[in-house]
Amino acid sequence: MTREVRAFSCELRAERDEKHGDHIIGVPIVYNAKTDIGGWYEEMIAAGALDGADLRDVRFLVNHDTSMIPLARSRNNNENSTMQMTVEADGLHIRVDLDTEGNTESRSLYSAIKRGDITGMSFAFRVETDSWEDLDTEYPKRTITGISKVFEVSAVTWPAYDQTSLEARSNANALDSAASVLESARDQARKTAERRSLAESILKKLEENRNV
């Protein structure tokens, strides 16, 4: 399956306490939020889509920049991980413990989120199962019912959508992958329709032969 990327504005907060020090919390994956994907189709991640998802090794980045050192990481989501992930009724919640004393990137990100300069998050993932409606129309609907893996979560300067619209200005790669997903779904639907038509044609001929 195609690796996909989604980004949106969300409640992203910078906090501090004695146990976790400087940290940020947010909800990078939100269930049941209808989203316009580039004007091509509407998408929604169904509740429970993360059940069984591979969350064993997930990095926390800024703007999906894999050339930079991750600011945090969840390894088997154990208590020693610098990113904690919790699947709740409304989606995936995270807490990222930042090393603001020893890492200038962490310090800059914490400050930007606290000031409200960064309000968006993004995630890279792979879909396990989905369903489509109205594929024969100009604006079909996609429901993601199962996510097989989450690769990374990022704080992003330009969130691509705020649970309502995905814009080309900020996430061309996401739009490219979305276009590929839609074309694949339509191609599969065409093949299914062709197979069904062929089967019906064969059954019709068999019925005609029996009546001769």
DSSP helical segment count: 2
Summarize the main sheet.
Answer: 8 strands, mixed
Radius of gyration computed on alpha carbons? 21 Å
Q: What is the number of strand segments?
A: 12
- Give helix % range: 10-25%
The stretches of 5 or more residues where confidence is low (pLDDT under 50) are: 162-170
Q: Could you tell me the mean pLDDT?
A: 86
Class computed from helices, strands and strand pairing: alpha+beta
Could you tell me the strand content as a percent range? 35-45%
Order of helices and strands: EEEEEEEEEHEEEH
Summarize, please:
The protein is an alpha+beta fold and 212 residues long. Helices cover 25% and strands 40% of the residues. Strand 2 and strand 3 form a beta hairpin.
Overall description:
It is a single chain. The chain is an alpha+beta fold and 212 residues long. It has one domain (3-211). It contains two helices and twelve strands, in the order βββββββββαβββα. The strands form two sheets. Strands 1, 4, 5, 6, 7, 10, 11 and 12 form an eight-stranded mixed beta sheet that branches. It has a four-stranded antiparallel beta sheet with strand order 2-3-9-8. A hairpin with a 7-residue loop joins β10 (120-133) and β11 (141-156). The longest helix has 40 residues, at 172-211. The termini are far apart.
